[in-house]
Amino acid sequence: MDGPKRILLVEDSAKDIELALEALGEHKLANQVAVVRDGAEALDYLYRRGHFANHPDGLPVLVLLDLKMPKVDGLEVLRQMKADPVLKRIPVVMMTSSREHSDLTQSYELGVNSYVVKPVKFQEFIDAVKHLGLYWVLVNEAPPAVVSGPAPAEPS
Amino acid sequence: MPGNSVFTQIAAVFVFSLGATILIGWRLGLEPLKSIIPGAIAIRPNVAAEMVLCGASLLLLSWGAFDKLRVWAATFAAAAVAVVVVTLMEIICGWNLGIDDVLTRGYAPPRDELDPGWRMLPATAFSYLTIGVALLLSTRRATPSRTALIAGLSASQLIPAGLGLITFFVLGNRWNPLGMTSSGVTTAITLFLLGGGLLVSLRRQGSLVWSLNKFTTIGFGVGILLMVITTATAFTYARRMLETNTWVNHRQEVIKEVEQSMTAMAKLAANERIYTIVGEEHLLEGREETKASLRVNLSEIRQLTADNPGQQHRLDRVEPLIAQRMQWEDQVIAVRRQQGLDTAASMIASGRGITLSREALAILKEMENEEYRLLTGDRKGAEVASNATFVLLPLGVFLSLAVLSLCIFFLNVGAAERRAAQARIRESEQRYRDMFESNPLPMWVYDRETLQFLAVNEAAMWHYGYSREEFLIKTIKDIRPAEELSALAEDIAHISPGFESENQRLWKHRKKDGTMIDVEVTAHDLRFGRRLGRLVLANDVTVRRHAEEEIRRLNADLEKRIEQRTAQLQTTNRELESFSYSVSHDLRAPLRHIEGYVELVVRHAGDSLNEKSRKHLQTVSESVAEMGQLIDDLLDFSRMGRVEMRQTRIDLDRLVGETIGSLESSLDTRNIIWKRRPLPPVEADPALLKQVFVNLLSNAVKYTRPRDPAEVEIGCLSEKNGEAVLFVRDNGVGFDMKYASKLFGVFQRLHHADEFEGTGVGLATVQRIIVRHGGRIWADSTLDRGATFFFTLPKAHLERKNGNGRT
User: Among candidates A108, A15, A19, A116, which has minimal Cα distance to A64?
Assistant: First the structure.
């Protein structure tokens, strides 16, 4: 039962995608996830251009953003999103393996909404993703612009 | 102009004019000009010539800064000396060389060959010889002995001439011990002026100073005065004796005449009586001659006693009586011849003739007595005078000799003192000269006006290569490079009275061999003799300057190298950072994947797995967790070496308290006794230091696990040299000291992992943090008896309370 893709997962590692979807699947959120494999795709997706020019989904209510990716990295995506008057309203959660102080600082300076270090323990990872999904998608009230997005919801 | 003096010039002009006036008088035949003082005898033309020559010489000398004037002054003085020398030789040898008449020839009647009447008096000649020699000496360069000689010669004329003039004007011509005549006065005045002018000129030059003390000077004056008085008194008394002698002769003459008169009268009376009695004509022969001689006698008496009014008066009375008596006698003789004896006898008997005779004789006797009385008085005066002379002369000579001897004594004492003082001065001068001469730094004095070197020391000669003679003909400009000459002029204009730091300059000097040296010059102005000099102390700093430049160059070099190294290090650091970033990100990802997929296997196929397989998957999971911990610890360790340190003052007591608090929350089953000693505040990065205590205390907790109760002590061993020695002691299992060297190595463990968990990075991290704070760390332990970890940290400084650290 594919619904509108309300979560954008930006992740280059296929394994991580699988694990993340597994985790989200546990909470019935997997079918609401759109996956892109790098920063450039993520921006294309958000701006509906290039390959994603005609995707049916509106803007996501949450972006799960990996930090370290080929082409355009997570920080750059974050920077461009937070510089855009519309996109800046979308909550962005950094999901990363990095505990580096500088990454943390830069992300918050660019206006990230949450920063999560992926735990090594799978159970913990699942818990973290569960909490994230539950909170941002189900508990948190999405900003108005995102909900009333122009994109029509179409079944795929 | 040195030696210039108004008095000297006036004196010289006066003497010159006086001499010139007299010569003009001779030339024009004007008597008043020849003698100057009215009524005095004419001054001899050669004396006037001496006045002109000496006056001119003195005048030139008083202006005499120029050599040309000095030559003329010497010429005039030499001429003056020549004239008097010739005159004196004429006097001594009895020659007549004709120089006495040179100036009067044609204007005065020629003199007898043997009587050169215009010849100068010996005393005058001698005086002018003295003055002439003094003038001649004055034209030469002044030396102390020459100055003394000139002063002595001048004074030998000045003093007698002055005394003579004083006695002449004060006491008059009568009592004149030096026999000064009024023409002598003129000469004396010129001698006084010439001598005085020379002395004043010497004194103005500064070459004549009164160095005798007042006592000795006055003593000499008294001695000289005593001699003058003695001489004068003796002279006066001698003259008075001579005068008395003349008077005695004179009075005896009068007495003789009076007695002859009386005898003549008696002779005439006897002649008359005998003729009256006998009546023979031949008895009257010779009577007329006797009468004539009586008259001669009487007129002699009148002449001789012309100065005595009493005698004249008596003579006036006696002359008529004598005339009457002779007339009476002639009457008696005439009566006897014509009327016979009886008539004549009766005339005689009348007594008239006897009365006349008696009266006349009485008066004559009176006159005789008067002369005798005067004679006695004169003799008495002469006796007094001779007595006084005999007493005064030896006494005066003795007194003056005594005073002069005393003066010689004091003079000697003074001279001895002066010699001692001179020796002291010489010694002191030598000492100061040595200080100058043997100063190891080059020193010199140069003239601020001419810039010529006035003195240089040994070090200067040695250092610059010039000999003293070469130095002294140079100026300071000669050793300075041309481009610094304007700076030199400016420097010289600047007056530097003391040794101030700003008098130190850096100059360049040129040595004899042409090499330029850098010198640090200390200079100050001083009086050097009569010159305004500048004392310079030159310190050759060429070597030092080169060394300084070398140091500067090396420093710059070093700075550049440090910059390069820093850049390299920064590059390395960046690389390291990206490396650890990759490690943190990329190493962890596969681990997570392993863990994730193992978990998925367990979840999805858990039921179909047997117990053993599940156990294996469990082990894979644990290993992954361990690996993850290892990576985290390694990253921490790496970060400890890289992160920026922010050093602040840290309250260790609070930090330890917080650390213990966080540890205890996970240790509720353990029985741990914390022994906390007071800790000093330290200067460190709070986050890093927290890590140190977390690691050390958790280690202590870990290795005391077998102990009940466990004891952990935290304290400060000492606070010295600005650092605190802290320690953490436990009563845990401890370690073998032979492995102590491995204690702080990364991944080094002294216990098995199944005994005590851990990655072996904790102590390495602690050591890294302590070392970054400039401290040391070491440990002491006995196996099974606990371990103590010591470490040092910089103590907190009050002023660096909020100081920022460096990376």
Answer: A116
